[in-house]
Design goal:
The chain has six helices and 19 strands. By secondary structure, the protein is α+β, with helices and mostly antiparallel strands.
Length: about 325
């Protein structure tokens, strides 16, 4: 069988060559900074990619960056093979992730239908269906506050849609109006206490909430929400919240939602808060190890025999990397 070298591009850390045979599809070979990518297709489809690599010769691309470039160029995922290398941390010939649109992954039954869900809910649904989930991107500021925990909070101003607290997939539903608090050990290593305080009922509830807050040790992680406002008896309890780095002023006369994450001993303003007049407030804070940076996609792996999905979002066209 006659084989011809059609084009070759050599750059500092990335090489590409387009190979073909008579009456057969061509293969574009791309060397990345951390592996090798083979792209199969018709010559007319692959030649522009080869030309683009030639034009970008000085650029150094990782496997993840090259895959994104191929996606932008509308290269079908089933025509791409990826081989990682780079020492013990990234075994050679490791099975490549399949990069696809979330809608396609759902339609093919690879992942459950998480389209349109909040990212916390999407990861929870993945886990319930045996899929290890992660998020593509950088951890947001203050994501370290909850340590190992993933938290989803909603402070509601509508009685038919109650406030909610989820910590690592477990619900801590408010048992009354007013405030509901969940306390975790330092570093978010586990829930140690949870309680609701009906701060509309009596000044005694304010005192009990203040005592509850002040008896927690330094470094304790506090997550909480109000339901239908802060209540008319919030006084010393509001002062105790400030010991967790929380700053939002509480005005019992204004119907305001309040969701927060703080740590005992943080300076003022060190916590995370969300509030709004006559509207719900939400906070989602994921554990830092649930984020996968784009540059680290090549090193991500699923548990042996398992399935993992790294989501860039939950819109139908959001990119998902599927690992098996």
């Amino acid at each position: 069988m006659k084989t011809a070298l059609i084009a070759a591009v050599v750059v500092l850390a990335c090489a590409a060559a387009l190979w073909g045979a008579e009456d057969e599809p061509e293969t574009l070979t791309v060397r990345t900074t951390d592996g090798l990518i083979l792209v199969s297709g018709a010559y007319d489809e692959l030649k522009p990619l080869s030309d683009r690599l030639a034009a970008d010769a000085p650029a150094k691309r990782s496997t993840a960056e090259t895959l994104l470039m191929l996606k932008d160029s509308a290269v079908p995922a089933d025509g791409i093979q990826v081989f990682f290398s780079g020492g013990t941390a990234s075994p050679a010939n490791k099975p490549a992730p399949r990069m696809m649109a979330l809608a396609d992954a759902v339609r093919e039954g690879i992942v459950p239908d998480v389209i349109g869900l909040e990212i916390y809910d999407a990861l929870t649904l993945l886990r319930m269906n045996g899929v290890e989930g992660a998020v593509l991107g950088e951890p947001p500021a203050k994501s370290h506050l909850a340590g190992k925990a993933s938290v989803s909070l909603r402070s509601s101003m509508v009685g038919l849609r109650p406030s909610r607290i989820f910590v690592n997939g477990k619900s801590y539903k408010p048992s009354s109006v007013g405030y509901t608090l969940v306390v975790m050990a330092p570093g978010g290593s586990g829930v140690v206490a949870s309680r609701s305080f009906n701060t509309y009922e009596s000044p005694d509830e304010n005192d009990r909430m203040a005592d509850f807050l002040r008896e927690q040790p330094a470094g304790a992680v506090l997550v909480g929400v109000s339901f239908l406002g802060s209540g008319v008896f919030m006084t010393t309890a509001a002062d105790a919240l400030r010991e967790y780095g929380l700053l939002v002023p509480i005005n019992p006369e204004v119907p305001t939602s309040h969701a927060f994450i703080g740590v005992k001993g943080l300076p003022p303003g060190g916590g995370v808060e969300a509030t709004a007049n006559n509207q719900d407030s939400t906070i989602v804070l994921l554990a830092e190890d649930l984020y996968v940076r784009e540059s680290e996609i090549g090193g991500f792996t699923a548990h042996p025999g398992g399935l993992a999905a790294v989501l860039s979002g939950t819109e139908p066209g959001s990119t998902v990397y599927v690992f098996q």
